[in-house]
Design brief:
The protein is of the alpha/beta class. It contains 23 helices and 19 strands. The strands form four sheets. Strands 1, 2, 4, 5, 6, 8, 9, 10, 11, 12, 15 and 16 form a twelve-stranded mixed β-sheet that branches. Helix 4 crosses helix 10, helix 10 crosses helix 18 and helix 21 runs antiparallel to helix 23. It starts with a helix and ends with a helix. Bound molecules: zinc ion.
Length: 737
């Protein structure tokens, strides 16, 4: 899953015209924009000599990924449905381990976690009045795609739904957000003890937030259906003729409250290694207490059109040819029986041991489990990853090791609660806090249809902590997009198209530096305070988490040439290699500070802050100090690096300090009410949307000024600490041994 990142990208206009934060260091400049032209230019964090070698290595690396091989991987991993804890998913773990060994990877290990899992025993839905209707809860087969006929494709269910048998009146609650229930109340409609039906995304919010909201409102059960206005015929041609969802497609998923604490619900904050202590499921904060089910619009339509109550206002209407009503006359019988019991999950792990700095790790990963075949989610990412590991393994077989250790992981149970990555992160927390340079996550590498994307192609839509944004932009100049342009040019062109910008965006406006949840980066960023980057292409895609998200969709509609898969492998590999091989770690804290100023400005302009009760002037000043320290350190160190005025000891000492900065954004107490989330710059809302300065922002939104002042104070302290750290790094650097 990766939905939140796509749906919550903010407008970037303010940064499009802001002064470029990272065009200051001359040697980091790469004016050339074609892959060939930059062969002579320098690379952020590399000495001139090492940059030449790195460019040579990257050229070799980039010649290795093959679209045909990506297609083969894609077919292998989409051969059968493979949800977490299924036999097929476990077989794929074994297969992957064998392949990685063959490719030359080292220390290939299967990590087992015993976790609370959830799968359906029996599920049914019928309308009992005013007419009888039995919902199919299945997706139709299509002759053109034999995979859709496989009985192993599950029917309708939600991971971690409560079990229950409920007969009650049906109420339509639009998107199921709190303001929707407010409107129902204004219309004199209570949902207490009723079954609520809501639409998937208008506006987008995570289905687990809809479940919690329905539970809090006292509803007896929840149905979530896919209205064609969001992902069906209103948007364009439907499967198998186009990328959008046909009448019977349904969006499975988990409804876990993992925005409170992710991972195995019964081991909040520690790893589910065999023999670990587990809390009782009744005590788990992340487990829903309401039964729920996803529906296709075909199963939802008879329920909605038989209502007789008052009509809904225009914004509540979907695209079905019916009159949308709040309630009236429709009785529904819902039966959900879930098997919620312990099952083993498997994380596959391997590494290429670093030749010089084996105790500094660059981690890459993708999840393996899928709701059905997972053509986009996650197998597009898996196919890109298998080409990445094959190509990096090939370099090692030719005698070229990375300077730092590269670790690769195939996560399990991401779809349930980000479970595999969370448990693995919790198990190795102490090592990761010390050694992890960055985590580069790819969930869906190609979540869009190249066949309907137009001449500019699919959108490259990465996200990264702001300190890594400049190196990502720089790397994109050396990778070619399927359109034939450099990835950098393609990125600018599609962002201009998508956001209807009057001119190409500036470099700092390219990278999304606001990071929500919804994928495996969460534990590394929010719990362990390590820098993360998320890569992927996006476009038209309406079969998310359905049985039609399969090999046919990808090979006929999504990426028929598989060139987007390999373009993604290339940018993933180039960024991985640069982080692994650089002399000075390519973090840019001036860019980090520029993003923080922007976040703080947004909080102020949201008009919720009373400046007499919460003065933020000093915080702006602290960020400005941090920005200046970051800029001066970067200039001093990179200039010395360019002129050869360095020593390995100086660089090693500097890197140790650079690695510390992200850790200093952690507050061990966590953000108020959610202690697992320790990062004070980044968290996710309950909807999965990105949330900056989470403790401060939530306190401001609750008009809790005492708490807001405390949270502002924490930020102040962390900024002072990091500014002092950069200053001390600079004076140590300038002493020159
Ligand atoms: Zn996914």
């Amino acid at each position: 899953m990766r939905e939140s990142l796509v749906k919550t990208r903010p407008e970037c206009l303010s940064r499009c015209i802001a002064a470029s934060a990272f065009l200051i260091v001359p040697l980091a400049l790469s004016a050339q924009t074609t892959p060939e032209a930059s062969q002579t230019s320098l690379i952020l964090g590399f000495s001139p000599v090492n940059a030449v070698a790195e460019h040579r290595l990257e050229t070799t690396f980039q010649s290795l990924p093959s679209p045909e091989k990506a297609r083969e991987w894609h077919r292998i991993f989409t051969a059968e449905p493979h949800p977490a804890a299924s036999e097929q998913n476990n077989k794929l773990a074994e297969f992957m381990a064998r392949e990685w060994r063959t490719q030359g990877w080292e220390d290939v290990t299967l990590r087992r976690y015993d976790v609370l899992h959830s799968s359906p025993r029996s599920v049914s839905l019928e309308m009992t009045a005013p007419v009888h209707f039995q919902a199919s809860l299945r997706e139709d087969p299509y002759d053109v795609d034999p995979d859709t006929k496989n009985p192993a494709i599950a029917g309708s269910y939600f991971g971690y739904s409560a079990s229950g048998d409920v007969t009650a009146e049906l109420v339509y609650a639009h998107s199921g957000n709190p303001e929707d229930y407010e409107l129902l109340r204004k219309n004199g409609i209570s949902v207490k003890g009723k079954i609520v039906i809501v639409r998937y995304s208008n506006p987008y919010s995570y289905r687990g937030f809809k479940a919690l909201t329905a539970e809090r409102e006292g509803a007896a059960a929840l149905l979530i259906y896919s209205d064609p206005a969001e992902d069906g015929y209103t948007r364009g041609k439907v499967f198998p003729d186009g990328p959008w969802g046909p009448e019977s497609h349904m969006q499975r998923g988990a409804i876990t409250y993992d925005y409170i604490v992710p991972g195995d619900p019964t081991t909040p904050g520690w790893a589910s290694v065999p023999g670990a202590k587990h809390i009782a499921p009744e005590d788990a904060r992340s487990l829903p207490k309401i039964p729920a089910l996803p529906l296709s619009w075909r199963d939802a339509k008879p329920l909605l059109e038989n209502m007789t109550g008052p009509e809904v206002p225009a914004p509540w209407r979907g695209a079905l040819p019916i009159t949308y009503r709040f309630t009236g006359a429709v009785q529904v019988h819902l039966h959900v029986d879930m098997d919620t019991s312990m099952k083993p999950y498997t994380v596959v792990e391997a590494r290429l041991r670093g030749s010089e700095l084996p105790d500094e790790w660059v981690l890459v990963g993708n999840h393996r489990d899928a709701w059905a075949y997972g053509g986009v989610d996650p197998v597009s990412g898996t196919a890109s990853m298998m080409e990445l590991t094959r190509s990096l393994g090939e370099l090692k077989q030719r005698g070229v090791r990375p300077r730092r250790t590269i670790v690769v992981c195939s996560w399990d149970g991401e779809e349930y609660a980000l479970t595999g990555s969370t448990e693995w992160g919790e198990q190795f927390a102490e090592d990761l806090k010390k050694k992890l340079v960055a985590y580069l996550n790819v969930d869906e590498s190609v979540a869009g249809a190249a066949t309907t994307a137009g001449p500019e192609g699919l959108s490259f839509e990465p996200a990264a902590v702001a300190s890594l944004a400049p190196m990502l932009v720089e790397a994109s100049k050396d990778v070619r997009a399927p359109s034939g342009k450099s990835l950098y040019e393609a990125w600018r062109a599609t962002l201009m198209r998508d956001k209807k910008l009057p001119a190409p965006p500036s470099d700092p406006a390219l990278v999304q530096t606001r990071i929500g949840s919804g994928s495996d980066h969460t534990v590394f960023l929010n719990h362990l305070g390590r820098p993360v980057m998320l890569l992927g292409f996006t476009g038209e895609y309406g079969v998310y988490h359905s049985g039609y998200d399969d090999h046919f969709w990808m090979s006929h509609i999504g990426d028929p040439t598989f060139e987007y898969h390999t373009a993604l492998t290339r940018i993933w590999g180039v960024t991985t290699l640069r982080l692994s091989n650089s002399d000075i770690l390519p973090f840019d804290f001036a860019a980090n500070a520029a993003a923080l100023q922007e976040f703080l400005g947004e909080l102020e302009s949201a008009d919720k802050i009373d400046p007499r009760r919460l003065p933020l002037k000093q915080l702006h000043q602290r960020i400005a100090d941090f920005e200046r320290a970051g800029k001066e350190l970067r200039e001093a160190t990179l200039q010395d690096l360019a002129s050869g005025n360095t020593s390995p000891e100086r660089i090693q000492h500097l890197n140790a300090q650079l690695l510390q900065v992200e850790s200093n954004w952690l507050d061990p107490a966590g953000i108020p009410g959610r202690p697992w989330f320790q990062h004070i710059l980044y968290a996710a809302r309950y909807t999965y949307a990105h949330l900056e300065f989470p403790g401060l922002t939530e306190a401001v939104e609750a008009a809790n000024w005492k708490l807001a002042a405390e949270q502002a104070n924490l930020l102040d302290t962390a900024l002072v600490k990091n500014t002092a750290l950069l200053r001390s790094a600079q004076s140590a650097w300038q002493k020159k041994p």
